[in-house]
Amino acid sequence: MTDYGVLANLLVIFTASIAVVFVFHQFKLPSIAGFLVAGALIGPNGLNLISDIGTVQVLAEIGIVLLLFTIGIEFSIVQVASMRRLMFLAAPIQVGVVLLIAWLGAMFLGLSWQQGVFWGFLFSLSSTAIVLKTLAERGESDSIHGRATIGILVFQDLAVVPMMLLTPILAGSSDEGGLGILLALGKSVLVGVLVIAAAWYLIPKVLGHIVRSRSRELFLLTIIVSCLGIAWLTSLGGLSLALGAFIAGLVISESEYSHQAMAEVLPFRDSFNSLFFVSIGILLDWRVLLDHPLPVAGLLVTILLVKFVAGAGAALTAAIPPREAVMVGIALAQVGEFSFLLAQQGQETGFFRGDPYQVFLAVSVLSMIVTPFFMKWSPHLARHVEAWQRLRHWLPGHTTAHVLQTEGKQIRMRGHVIIAGYGLNGRNLARVLGDTNIPYLALDLDGDIVAREAKHGVPIYYGDATNPNVLRHMKIEDAKVLVVAMSDPFITRRAVQIAKGLNPKLHVVVRTRYLRELDELHQLGADDVVPEEFETSIEIFALVLRTYNLPQDVVFQKVEQVRREGYALLRRSEPMELSHHLRDGTLNDAEVETCRIDDDSPVREKTLEEIALPSRTGVSVIAWTRAGVTQTSPSEKTQLMAGDIVVLLGSRAQIQQAMELLVQIDATK
Question: For residue 565, how many C-alpha atoms fall within 13 Å in the half-sphere facing its CB?
Fold first, then answer.
C-alpha cells in the first residue's frame, strides 16, 4: 500500500504555518519567526504532529540551496570582488573574536581548550538563511549594512569546511595531522575551482541552446539541474551544498538569462524556505527551557552580546560607518544552521551529549527566533549611535568622524546640488549637471568609487549623508537641491530628515524602490520622491503607445501628465474612478483630465469663481479631491489649496489651455 506519510507531514507543516504566520502578520511580526514558532508547536517536543523529521529536513535543505542560488543570481563577480575587504579582513576578525571569547569562557568554566575551540566553532557561525531572507524582505540586500553582512556570511560558509575537518582532530578521534588537513582543504579548493570553471564555460552555452527551443519547461528544468548539480558537485569536495548553490547563482548572474531564471525559481524557493524555518523550530525542546532556564537564558544573552560586539567591531575595521556597523552586528547575532552540522559531528566524536547538546539546540533556535525582531528594530537602535559623540574619538579612521578626504579644506559653493550616492542614478545626474554647468558635489561611502571618480575630476567625497557635520562641510546651508540616490531605505529616510532640519528651504529629491515609501518620505521633508517601480510603469506604457504609432507629442503629454499627477493619486487608498467612468460613457467628443494644484500654482488659495475657467477656457470643473476625499460638482465658492486635484471636462484644446492657466499663467491676468 502506498505510504502517504510525507504528504501528511507537509500538509501539517503548511497548515500550521498558515495559521501561525497569519497571526504574526496581524500583529506585524516577522513571518520567519512565525515559521520557527510553528515548527516548535508541531514538532515531537510540542504537539508531536510530525512523524518523519528526516524527510522534512531533506526538503528543508533544498530550501537553503534555492535561497543561496537566488542570492547568487542577484550578485555578480564584480560585487563579490568588491567585498574582499569584508571577506578577508572583517569576517576573519568576527570569527576570530568569537573563537577567542569562547576559548576564554571554556577555560574559566574548567573545560579543555579543545572544547573551547569547538564551542567557538559553533557560535562563530551565523544563520545565512534567516539573515538573507530578512534582508530581502526589508529590501536591504543592496544597502551598506546588507552587503557587509552578506560578505561576512559568505566567509563563514567557507569557514565551515576547515571547521568540519578540525573537529575530529580536536576530539582525538582522527589520526590526521596538519598535512592531512591541508590535503583535504586543497581537495576542496581544487574541486570548487574545477566546478566553477566548467560551469562558467558550459552553463551559458547550454542555456543558449535551451532558450532557442522556446520551451519554458526545458528552461526551468535546466535551471534547477544547474543549481542542484553544481551544489552537489561542490559538496563532493567538502564544501557545503548552500555554498555550491551560491556559486551556481553567481555563474548564471553573469548571463543574460539571470532575470528569467530568478523568476522561475522564486515560487519553489519560497515554498521550500518555509520548510527550512519550520524544521529549525522542530528542534526546539520546550522541556529544556523549563529544566535549565538560567543556563539557557544566560548563554543566550551572552551569545547575542558577544556576536553583536564581534560583528559590529569587525565591520568598523572594514571602514563601515558606525550606524551600519551596529546593524551588521545585530544581523549576525545568532547561531547559524551550519552549527547544527558541527554539533552533530561533535556528538559523534564525543564532545558533548545529553543536556549540553539540548541546551545548545535550545539556545540556537531561540537566537534564530529573536533575530527577525532585532533586525526589524535595528534601524531605531542604530539611530542612537549618532548621539554617542564620545565614541567617535576611538573609532577606526574611515568612519563618520573622518568621512571627508577634504578634511580641513574649505568648500566655497552656493546654489549647488548635493548628490548623496554615486551609483548609476548619481552618475547620470552628475553628467547632466556638468553638461549644463550646474555646480554639484557628490557623496558616497564606497572608498573605491570615491578614489576612482576623484581621479577623473569628479567633485566627490567620502562621506555619510546622515552625518550633520558632513552635510555642513558640503555647505548644506547654501545648497539648493539635495538628491538622495541610495538604495538603503533607512539611510535615505535619515538623510532627508537631517538635511531638511539643517536647511528647511532645501529642495530634496529622493529615489526609492517602492511606492509604499512615498508617504513617509514626504512626511520627513522630501519634496519629490521618484519610486523606481512607478517610473518603470511609465516607461512600459510609453513603449506600448509608441508601438501603436501614436504621435510623439501625445505620448509625451501622457508621460508628463502621469508624472505630474500620478504620485499624488498613487498615495490614495482608492483610485479615482470618475474619469474612467466618463470615458466609458457617451461623451466621445470630450475628454476628462486631472490636474494637481502645487504649492507654487498661481491659482492656489483662489476660488473657482475667481479663476473663471468656464468663461476663459470653456472647461468645466466637475469634481475635486482633497485629503483623499472626492466631491462632485464643486460650488463657485470652492477655494483651491495646495495638494488639491481638480477634474476637468472639455475638449483637448480647452483642457490644455486650462492646465496652462492652472500651472503656469498668473490667474489675475
Answer: 19
Report how many helices (DSSP H) and strands (DSSP E) the chain contains, helices first.
29, 10
Q: How far apart are the first and last CA of the chain?
A: 90
Q: Are residues 130 and 336 in contact, defined by beta-carbon separation less than 8 angstroms?
A: no
**CA angle, 390 then 393 then 396, to 5°:** 130
Q: What is the CA radius of gyration of the chain?
A: 29
Q: What are the distances in angstroms from CA 73 to CA 68, 226, 251, 252?
A: 9, 12, 8, 6
> Checking DSSP bridges between strand 620-626 and strand 591-596, what pairing results, if any?
unpaired
Find the Cα–Cα–Cα–Cα dihedral 230, 231, 237, 243, rounded to 10°: 120
Rounding to the nearest 10 degrees, give the CA dihedral for residues 472, 478, 479, 484. 30
The listed range with the strongest mean pLDDT (158-162, 500-504, 602-606) is 500-504
Q: What is the identity of the amino acid at 619?
A: V
**What's the grid cell of residue 30?**
516577522
Question: How many Å apart are CA 256 and CA 316, to the nearest integer?
Answer: 36
- Torsion, CA 60, CA 61, CA 65, CA 67, rounded to 10: 30
Residue pair 269/218 in contact (Cβ under 8 Å)? The answer is no
Average pLDDT of every residue of the chain? 79
> Is the per-residue pLDDT at 572 higher than 60?
no
Q: Which domains does the chain possess?
A: 5-389 (1.20.1530.20), 403-534 (3.40.50.720), 572-669 (3.30.70.1450)
What mean pLDDT is predicted for residues 364-386? Answer: 82
Q: Which residues of 190-211 are buried (b: 16+ CB within 10 A; e: fewer)?
A: ebbeebbeebeeebeeebeebb
pLDDT at 354: 66
Whole-angstrom distance, CA of residue 189 vs CA of residue 185: 6
> Residues 341, 164: contact at Cβ < 8 Å?
yes
| Total length of the chain | 669
